[in-house]
Amino acid sequence: MSSPGGDAGPHGVLDRPGPYCSVQDLGRRSGRRAGLAPGGAMDQRAYLWANRLLGNEPGAAALEVTLGGLDLRFVVETIVALTGADCAASLDGVETGGWRTLRARPGQVLRLRYSATGMRAYLAFPGGLEVDRAFGSASAVARDGLPGRLGRPLRAGEALRWGAPARSCPVRRVPPALVPPPRAALALPLVVAYEWPEFSPADRDRVFAAEWTVDPASNRTAVRLAGPALASGPRVLDSAPLVDGTVQVTGDGRPLIFMRDRPTIGGYAKLGALDPIALDALAQARPGTIVRFVRAEPEPLRRALVRRESFFGIGDH
Q1: What confidence tens digit (pLDDT) does each residue in 179-209 have?
Q2: Which pTM does this prediction carry?
Q3: Using the 8-state DSSP alphabet, how is residue 313 labeled?
Q4: Which SS3 state, helix, strand or coil, does residue 72 take?
Q5: What are the distances in angstroms from CA 168 to CA 126, 147, 165, 175, 272?
């Protein structure tokens, strides 16, 4: 485990963290053998845009703010970037909007109210947050038992430091055409996998014909879907590796979509896996959002993911 050095004062203080605020990056890609979840930003598009606006490396550590309810008091003059769910952000009471950079002076307070449309906002800092890392990542996963901020959400009164508080950066905004709108319904591309034959023909038809809704019990580990049960699916098989977006059918016959804090293996029958890019919209889906599956082939999804990673410079650092 690595730790930032130095003992200088904070650049900001988290006066109010909201229901669940955590440090996230692109995720932990080398912890599987230790049984660790990958973690990482749930809405990777919003997270990547926040870092891009500031000229950060794509994997710089940032804050993921679930539902809003955050107050951040600045100790230094700096610039930050805010993306993701619309939390009616304001700086000293002046509304700022999102998907843009914001200039802040010492003593000013950035407030995020509770979002009415999305689930998660992202706050990035110049140079990235200075935080501990384990297995190559700063991502916090509460259930993995890692020490300090790596294993818990942030608390009121915590001090924050970032790498380049005095960096000069112009005010930038994400082009409106590239800002995803709130959605009341999602069509999720599903690539069926080798356990697809475990389901009856009737259930296979039902997968693409039915509507489900996002269940309130959803979290960073998995999105639970409420709706019609698949009668043939809840079979316990040999445990097999999971990936982000694996769709598993558990004992109640309803689909469960694994997200960033997923376990490393699962033993129930799996329908397949979702398009990784579609997980961004799913991460912003509030309870009650309508979900449908559409059948997809892997190669077009792979090409789209390569294009996105190239645009954001993933793999260049």
Answers
A1: 999 999 999 999 999 999 989 999 999 999 9
A2: 0.94
A3: T
A4: strand
A5: 9, 34, 9, 21, 46
HSE at residue 87, side-chain half, CA atoms within 13 A, is 28
Q: Are strands 290-295 and 20-24 parallel, antiparallel or unpaired?
A: unpaired
The tokens of 193 are what?
């996998």
Task: Kindly tell me the burial class for residue 169, based on how many C-beta atoms sit within 10 Å of its own C-beta (0-12, 13-18, 19 or more).
Answer: middle
Tokens representing residue 296 in the block:
């997809």
Q: What are 249's two structure tokens?
A: 């059918």
- Rounded distance, CA 288 to CA 269, Å? 25
Strand stretches in 141-297, DSSP E: 158-160, 185-192, 212-214, 222-226, 236-241, 246-249, 255-258, 265-268, 270-274, 290-295
pLDDT tens, position by position, 13-56: 999 999 999 999 999 988 777 788 899 999 999 999 999 999 99
Q: Which neighbouring-strand residues pair with 308?
A: none
Angstrom distance (rounded) from CA 238 to CA 55? 45
**Which tokens go with 311?**
């645009």
Q: Hey, what are 127's tokens?
A: 């140079």
β-pair type (270-274, 158-160) = unpaired
Opening angle at CA 185, ends 219 and 117, nearest 5: 60
